[in-house]
């Protein structure tokens, strides 16, 4: 399949499945906007894509600081008038924060990096996605999901890395369903997925788990949602690897989605009446 001339931003493409998706998109002819927090790793990924005959530009931003998310969006907007696909893939696993940690903005770290950064980045890049319609947003979530406790979203009580990870992943799914409804008819589709179970990546190794699948398995699932013709116009869906599936029930609760949207707008400093379309 070819994806010539189209621009795709994939967050967290300096390692793991994100890196493999970036390489595959480069080979398809896309202009790959590689993102990561580490300059050397990011430049190396972009260089490898170019050496293989593709097109790639590296953008550096640490997603644990909302100010850097804003800088990333500004940099992409400066370089591009349109964005065909945004893949919110960057994330930290449960093993990265076994004890509770906070982001630069004092938010629980996994909620901040895995969910809130993608929420803000998506909001800020929507004009570029609309300009490229039909365009797609893919949120790389997980089958590991735990209901958001709106009384303690920042997990100040009963913290565990696993709980923080699962809550942040379900938050991505609620956001996907909510945004799909808001963007209905705009030509921007938004889907999410569990890419594969225990891929052989840093996150999984750090969690002390024996890998069960490969980054190629996950890349195939992500690319299906991001670029396959069969997904054209399909929106508001959760996939378990390659199959459409049902996420945790909270994702289908409009009240919970509205609560999360209101909270996320507040935490990211966007106006309560933010114009998504
Ligand atoms: N592995 C699995 O089996 C599995 C299963 C379900 C879902 N997922 C999801 O798949 C996605 C990718 O995971 P992976 O397994 O490929 O993990 P990974 O190999 O650990 O890669 C994670 C990527 O996110 C980046 N990242 C982490 N924190 C960041 C920050 N603060 N700012 C900017 N970038 C940051 C990492 O950058 P560095 O290179 O600097 O570390 C890396 O590029 C995640 O959203 C994960 O939740 C994975």
Task: Give a structural overview.
With 277 residues, this protein is α/β, with parallel strands linked by helices. The protein has helices spanning 16-27, 39-51, 66-79, 109-131, 161-182, 202-206, 215-227, 254-268, and strands at residues 7-10, 31-36, 55-60, 85-88, 135-140, 188-194, 237-240, 243-245. It has an eight-stranded mixed beta sheet with strand order 3-2-1-4-5-6-7-8, sandwiched between helices. Strand 5 (135-140), helix 5 (161-182) and strand 6 (188-194) form a beta-alpha-beta unit. It is globular, with a radius of gyration of 17 Å. 48% of the residues are buried. Bound molecules: NADP nicotinamide-adenine-dinucleotide phosphate (NAP). The site of NADP nicotinamide-adenine-dinucleotide phosphate (NAP) has 30 residues, from helix 1 and helix 6.
Reconstruct the topology from this structure.
Elements lengths: L6 E4 L5 H12 L3 E6 L2 H13 L3 E6 L5 H14 L5 E4 L20 H23 L3 E6 L20 H22 L5 E7 L7 H5 L8 H13 L9 E4 L2 E3 L8 H15 L9
Parallel strand pairs: 1-2, 1-4, 2-3, 4-5, 5-6, 6-7
Antiparallel strand pairs: 7-8
Helix pairs in contact: 1-2, 1-7, 3-4, 4-5, 4-8, 5-8
Bound molecules: NADP nicotinamide-adenine-dinucleotide phosphate.
Concise account of the structure shown:
This protein has about 280 residues and is α/β, with parallel strands linked by helices. It has eight helices and eight strands, in the order βαβαβαβαβαβααββα.
């Amino acid at each position: 399949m070819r994806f010539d001339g189209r621009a795709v931003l994939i967050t967290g493409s300096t390692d793991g499945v994100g890196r493999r998706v970036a390489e595959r998109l480069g080979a398809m002819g896309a202009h790959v906007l590689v993102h990561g927090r580490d300059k050397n790793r990011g430049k190396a990924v972009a260089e490898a894509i170019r050496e293989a005959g593709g097109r790639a530009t590296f953008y550096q931003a640490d997603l644990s600081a909302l100010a850097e998310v804003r800088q990333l969006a500004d940099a992409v907007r400066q370089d591009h008038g349109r964005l065909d696909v945004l893949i919110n893939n960057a994330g930290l696993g449960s093993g990265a924060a076994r004890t509770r940690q906070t982001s630069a903005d004092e938010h629980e770290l996994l909620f901040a990096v895995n969910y809130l950064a993608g929420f803000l980045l998506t909001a800020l890049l929507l004009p570029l996605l609309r300009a490229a319609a039909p365009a797609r947003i893919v949120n790389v979530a997980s089958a590991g999901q735990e209901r958001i406790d709106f009384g303690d979203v920042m997990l100040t009580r009963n913290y565990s890395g696993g709980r923080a990870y699962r809550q942040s992943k379900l938050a991505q799914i609620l956001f996907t369903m909510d945004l799909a409804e808001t963007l209905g008819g705009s030509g921007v589709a938004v889907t999410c997925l569990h890419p594969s179970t225990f891929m052989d990546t840093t996150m999984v190794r750090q969690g002390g788990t024996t890998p069960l699948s490969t980054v190629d398995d996950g890349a195939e699932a992500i690319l299906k949602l991001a670029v396959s013709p069969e997904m054209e116009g399909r929106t508001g869906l959760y996939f378990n690897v390659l199959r459409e599936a049902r996420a945790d029930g909270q994702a289908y609760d409009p009240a919970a989605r509205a609560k999360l949207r209101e909270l996320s707008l507040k935490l990211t400093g966007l106006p309560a009446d933010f114009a998504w379309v």
